[in-house]
Amino acid sequence: MAVSFAIPAYFTAIFILSRLMSIIGISKPWSHISPKLLTLDIAGKLSVDPSAIEQASQDFGHIVKTIPEAVLYPSSPEDIATLIKFSYTNSVPFSIAAKGHGHSVRGQAMVNNGVVVDMTSMKKHRNGTGIQISTDGFYADVGGEQLWIDVLNATLERGLAPVSWTDYLYLTVGGTLSNAGISGQTFRYGPQISNVYEMDVITGKADFLTCSPKKNSELFYAVLGGLGQFGIITRARIPLEPAPKRVKWVRMLYNDFSVFTGDQELLISKNGRNDKKALDFLEGSLLMDQGSPDNWRSSFFPTADHPKIISLITKHRVIYCLEVVKHYDDQTKDTMDKELQQLLKGLSYMPGFMFQKDVQYVEFLNRVRSGELKLKSQGLWNVPHPWLNLFIPKSQIADFNDGVFKGIVLERNITTGPVLVYPINRKK
Ligand SMILES: Cc1cc2nc3c(=O)[nH]c(=O)nc-3n(C[C@H](O)[C@H](O)[C@H](O)COP(=O)(O)OP(=O)(O)OC[C@H]3O[C@@H](n4cnc5c(N)ncnc54)[C@H](O)[C@@H]3O)c2cc1C
């Protein structure tokens, strides 16, 4: 029986940019896996090249290093099944890990002395079939190796889009569906794992199974959020809806945490999935002394307002930023401002500290990209990323602000990375 909770829980992401040492190990090729693997027809797609091993033994976190014995560059799901079958039927099975875009932070897509399957190599062999939109436009069949940015671009060509996203889109479908896929749409639509109709999965016994809430449902629910431990996703069927053209994007500042969370909770309590007038996105973040009120996630505040925001931060040391978005298109552009005003009426942000932007839908969804490119150009992208994601019950979120945001993050001056905090309806 499904249980639904009326009380929201808070999602917080604390992302600290710092320089830690990596732990390094070395392994010899084929010291753990039977060299018989090289007699299979996938032999030519296996690599023990030092650069392939190096690539597969690190991730975006740059904190752990785990050395595989080989990397498989599959050109089809059958290649993956051949590898899994060889391990499963071997007297000494070895570990296998699917690697999407490698944006995990603690080695989740790595494997010690086993084989890493580089899912992205399938992309070039799909011959344009990696993202297929149904004729009625209700869903897209998407390869597990596809990046969400490519899913967005392909579906937008038909005026459609999925409804639930992550903040950053250069992640694979298989990678985020193995976690959760959480962002500012989650309060309304649920995480990405709640927005999947069915999947094709290769199991640990190398069986090809299609699963959904009605068919092989145990596998379906195990794989979604299963960290790649229950099978390899080769296709996911993602629901689509008509895509908006543009969005109104609003940020409001608070110096009082309970007022900030009170407004967040009020907003998510009012905005149901089928309510056409509802907000489409809600998040929140901390502004601390980082030099500029715009952090790497996106530049937002007008330059002329930077001095007044900076002096606010200097005075209070931490400011809370409530961020919301409302979609619109040609049919709704005239009523849009009024609807937004209505939605934000009665909120208690600091007078004079509401900022708005009007941008294309794709620019909003892909907002982290410009920050990524900036950090890359400064050599600050491929650095260690200690990163903590937590769900915190509503009853504890004020204590978390006092103990962690103020007591640790602020006291220890850990102000270099973004800290996000936003509520999610548990029933989603
Ligand atoms: C800058 C940045 C921003 C982010 N923002 C968000 C956010 O807003 N919301 C959010 O929810 N997450 C966010 N993440 C986290 C991200 O969703 C996860 O790290 C995700 O796993 C990354 O996808 P990937 O393709 O890089 O997966 P990988 O790191 O390659 O793999 C992740 C896990 O999935 C498994 N896996 C990969 N492909 C498959 C497959 N086809 N079948 C089965 N298992 C598979 C791997 O074995 C591993 O366990 C962010 C990450 C970064 C770096």
Give a verbal description of the structure.
The protein has about 425 residues and is an alpha+beta fold. The protein is built from twelve helices and 18 strands. It has helices spanning about 50-55, 75-90, 150-155, 175, 185-190, 215-225, 255-270, 305-315, 335-345, 360-365, 370-375, 395-410, and strands at about 10-15, 45, 70, 95-100, 115-120, 130-135, 140-145, 160, 200, 210, 230-240, 240, 245-255, 280-285, 320-330, 355-360, 385-395, 420-425. A five-stranded antiparallel β-sheet has the order 6-7-11-9-10. A four-stranded mixed β-sheet has the order 2-3-5-4, with helices on both faces. The protein has a four-stranded antiparallel β-sheet with strand order 14-15-13-16. Strand 9 (about 200) and strand 10 form a beta hairpin. It is globular and about 70 Å long. The model is unreliable at about 1-5 and about 15-25 (pLDDT under 50). The protein binds flavin-adenine dinucleotide. The site of flavin-adenine dinucleotide has 32 residues, from strand 4, helix 4 and strand 11. It is an enzyme of class 1 (oxidoreductase). Its cofactor is FAD. One of its GO terms (molecular function) is FAD binding.
Q: List the domain count as a whole number.
A: 3
Average of pLDDT: 91
- CATH architecture tag of the largest domain: 3-Layer(aba) Sandwich
Quick one: CATH superfamily of the largest domain?
FAD-linked oxidases, C-terminal domain
Query: Whole-Å distance between the termini?
Result: 15 Å
Q: What's the level 1 CATH class of the largest domain?
A: Alpha Beta
Radius of gyration: 23 Å
Q: Kindly estimate the percentage of residues that lie in beta strands according to DSSP.
A: 15-25%
Number of strands: 18
